[in-house]
Amino acid sequence: AGREIASQRQRRRGESAGREGRRMADPAVAAAMAAARALLSPGDPATLAAADAHLRAVNDSPDGWRIGRALLSAETQHGDVLAPRVRVMGAAMLRAKAHADGFAMTPPDAASMTSELLAMLGTPEGSGELGPHLAQIAAAVATAGGAETLASLVDASISLAAPDSNGGWARVQDPNAPVPCGPNAHAAVALLAACAEEALHRVKAHPPETTRAAQDLLDDVTWTLQAVACGGGDTSGGGGGVVVTDAARADVFRALRLWIPAGVTASELVVQRNALFTRLVDVAIGSHTAVFDPRVTLQAAETLHELCVVSDPLPGRAAAVDAVLRTLESEADECDVSAATRLDWNLSGGVFVPPGDGAGGVHDELERERVRAHAWSVASVGGALGATEPRALATHGHGKIVRFLTNVVSRADAGCASTALAAFRQPPPRGLLAHLRSPGGRLHAVFDALAGRLAARTAGAAWRAFVGESASRLARERVSGGGRDANNDAVHLLPVSSFETSLDDDGELAVVGDVEAAIGALHAAMGTPTFMRIAFDRLSKASGDPAVVAAELVMLADSGYPLAPDAPEDPTCVDIANVLVALPACDLAPVKALVARVFRGPFKRLLTSDPDSFSRALRYLLRGPSSGAGVVAGGSNMDERVACARACVQTIASLVEDVCVGGHDVVRSMRVGIDAVLDETRLLAPSNRGAFMKSMCHFHLAARDADAVNELASRRLARLTASASSLTVAAATAAVTDVEASHAASAAGELRVLRDWCESGARSVASPETIDAIWRASWRFAELAVARGGRSYGGVAFRCCELWRTLPLAQAVPSDADVATALGLVDRTLTMLSTRGFDADAFGHVVSVPAAFLEENVGDVDLATGLLNAALELLWREGEKVPVNARAHGRDDRFGHAPDAAAAAFNAMTTAATRSLSSVPAADACLRQAALLCRGHGVEPATSALKLIEHVWSRAPWADLRGEGDASPGVAGGLVRDAYQLGSLAMATCAGGAAAAEEVREAPGCPRQVCASYAG
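The structure corresponding to this sequence follows.
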């Protein structure tokens, strides 16, 4: 007998070796096998990439089916650790092939391959690592084969789960009676889940037929899932049944969830599959959570959540909802206590570690994960029912579910809070909050929960650290300043010891939208008087805590107040606005930015209808967020103040715009508030002062007060006059001192404000005296900037040139006189640069002025073009002063000493080239230098140079040179002129291009290569 057994084993090994040999004799299979093993082994990135590319190409080819099946059935040799992984890779290739090319399979081919895969699934290897992959392939192939193949696979799966080896199930009278299942039940459930995933959750070749087949199979599928979930676990292996593992039950609930699109509803389950529905509820949110693996509970909870989140009109819906609510009511208190005492309200947790995979304390960790899964499941299902069955949830039992959901919203982590917030997002009359109005205390609890979450969690670690640092700094500054702020008002120190940080900023940001929706729904449910009174009480009792104040500000900003556009103003809003402008915590920059958001949001209508509130709000918004002591340029304090000032100025602009829309009478009524704050802009940055200036101009234009508009400019000119006097005294020193640089920067800010004044529309009503004063003041500062060096003079030259461009162009119809004045100032500036000393920074800004006028097609084109040519001659002469051996690009280089100035010149000449092709020598020189400067290391000069060359050559007179122009006698001279001009341009471009190409060999680079293509 022993010899016979040994002989049979030898014969089987020989047959297996023969099959493997025949397989390996196929070069394509051998190459794929080698690539798979290379991909699964450590190696260099190039080898791994080549192996991956080879397998992808094989799978895309017609031989993909054959080679994938060969890898799937690869023999496993003793000690070969890669063979099982090769088979898994073959399974993955076959599934990808079925998704990509399965539509080309015929139903008989799909049925044949499905039978092979089912046979493999019944082997010992099918119950191991390869099993789920085999199930996925079989489902993908069956779905690709069509509805009949899919139905056959589902029938085979149901037979596979049966306790009888022939696929027979025990006959029972009660459809909900427990039925034992067979040893292959887990594999059958995996197949059913795979079939649903492929047929109902992926793009299919025959969607209507496949979906219809899935719906026809639903009754048998749910019966099988019920048998596995409820029957197998009640036996101990006798009577033909087997013990169903926790993993199998988790797959049962996952399969049920995947089959929901075929028509699974809670109503039908509670009537037709009551045992399955009862087990689902018990495992998801009931007492069974203390028995099963936490992963089983979470799978069941996800399925029950999806069943509850969709409302259906079938008769069994009420019974299903009642069953779920009874279980939730009985478990809510326990979840509340355990979440607070054992989990510290961290209900989402991390990655669960199964027993035996960790270090010590595994049992305690398992119990903690069970508690966490239970609490999360109750919150998830409760939130779903709160969204679809709000009345039933609000009136069921003693309100334990609502209380637990409220605590989750207030204290739980972001991942779990979002599920509970689903119950509170729907506004009345349909949402849950509409059914919590009586008793009113429950709405107050929801208000406290949302405000508490905003105060403790939604702000996030970064924001809270930001506020904490601001509060600490402001407290120190006020201590050093004798307890008084920048306005010399006595203040109290802020509590800063309670600031903590949270590590879940990203999660909290994700839940902000749900919180905002819940706040709006709560306001609608409470009504404006109650909501505003609670907010006012909490602000009054905040004791200066910035976190509490910020939370109330967010509540106000997201409340959706007013509920109706024509609703009367609530008197409490006036009290809240008065509290905000006087509360010490609102002096912090981050909190003040929130106040600005509230003022331009829900309180805008109040502030723009009451002159006193309007004036008080403007004073507060223009007041600095903190004292000036200890401010470090570029530090976090400065960043806070800049962001806060920007938000405040935006709010002022929004308020003024609404006032202007109200009409002339409303504007006149607000005039006192505007006049009171005109001098309180010293703490604003120039950009914010300019935005404020625009708002004031809009206001006075709406008031039809031209004198006030001129007065706004006169205030700025007075500041400029004072700065000019200080700069004239400071200019007596040889170098620019820090004091002089500070005055110059201040003057640049005032020039920017004047530019914004022009852009606001004030230029159309300004008096000639004001405009003349602006021209004279700007020239005085331009003269100082050129004399002292433009780049080191606080940007004064740039602001002057910006103002020269804006003054003429700010009018609806630009004045030729204004354009001529601006060009005259450009001419004088160029003369100064030529006689007193060349400054590349000032030069670059000056040439942009005539280019802007040419771009807008205003003024004298010849005069603007002449100025640009004069500027280029000046740049050329400055380049000739550079010694030959010091020139960056050879002896012919004249512009390399100031590449940024050359780039500005090239951009200006590109604009000029669109208007005129005059053959002034400077134009040829410009092209020659443009070609030379293409070799420069700076990208911007090279880009500008190439753009100029392309633009000029695109406008060359090719048509006339070919004789296609006008043949009249008067055109002959034009042909000669154009031919001369074209020859001049060609010589200039080719001269520079040849020199550039010569250097390409020595120092190749991207800009040089582009230039070489142009030269060619």
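The chain is about 70% helix and 0% strand.
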